[in-house]
Amino acid sequence: MTFQYFGHSCFQLQIGDQTILVDPFISPNPLAQGIDLRNLCPNFILVSHGHGDHVADLITIATQSDATVIANYEIAEWAKSKGVKNTIGMNTGGVLTTPFGRVRLTNAVHSSVLPDGSNGGNPNGFLIHSSEGNVYYAGDTALHMDMQLIPLWAPQLDVAILPIGDHFTMGVEDAIMAAQWTKAQQVIPVHYNTFPPITIDTGKAKEQFALAGIELRFCPLQEIVVL
Ligand code: NI
Ligand code: MN
Q1: Ligand 1 geometric centre to CA of 115 (Å)
Q2: For 207, what's the count of Cα atoms within 13 Å in the CB-facing half-sphere?
Q3: What pLDDT is recorded for position 49?
Q4: What topology does CATH give the domain 2-226?
């Protein structure tokens, strides 16, 4: 499995022959200006919640690629109303079998409204079980006790992708606790340094994780990282 970071909370996983894009927010992100949207052709797009910094390029990329959008029911219906052909609307607790593995919609403690004011349903994270490893993406969330369920569903968690920017989500200290609760082998940080309220000292964050015995793996933009 590979991971490719597109800035903020947007990334792409490659699992076997399937490409999975998550929370597409590229064109409005000043840190992601080198990325050409037209090159993106995922098979699936996963959306954690309705906020603009997670759905900004959803319709454009879903339309050009014919990707299947997997999200909560409200976001899936919204995407359909904007012309997206392939959508799978789920809700928290549901597990879907896909060509890249099983996807569980997990709880997230946050809010969710779409950019045009439409109801964005409840926010989610995703737990992916695949033949190439297990990945938990927490979405935008506070630390919450349901993260203790993750190792019950996935005793071997290869990577947790966690927000660490604070202010709108958990910060570094809570993300360390999340990493411990999920028993992740490694942590990839997201949702930091995009805007002033979530700007953090990345060196210090790495140190804090290291003190807890956890590898915090910052991924350079666009580099294909093997997990
Ligand atoms: Ni959000
Ligand atoms: Mn966000």
Answers
A1: 11
A2: 5
A3: 98
A4: Metallo-beta-lactamase; Chain A (3.60.15)
Dist. CA 150–CA 54, nearest whole Å: 23
Provide the CB-side half-sphere exposure for 26 (13 A, CA): 24
Phi, psi of 119 (to 5 degrees): -65, 125
Which residues are close to ligand 2, an ion, with C-beta < 5 A? Answer: 53, 140
Taking only the tens place, the pLDDT of each residue in 108-167 is 999 999 999 999 999 999 999 999 999 999 999 999 999 999 999 999 999 999 999 999
- Ligand 1 mean position, distance from CA 53 (Å): 7
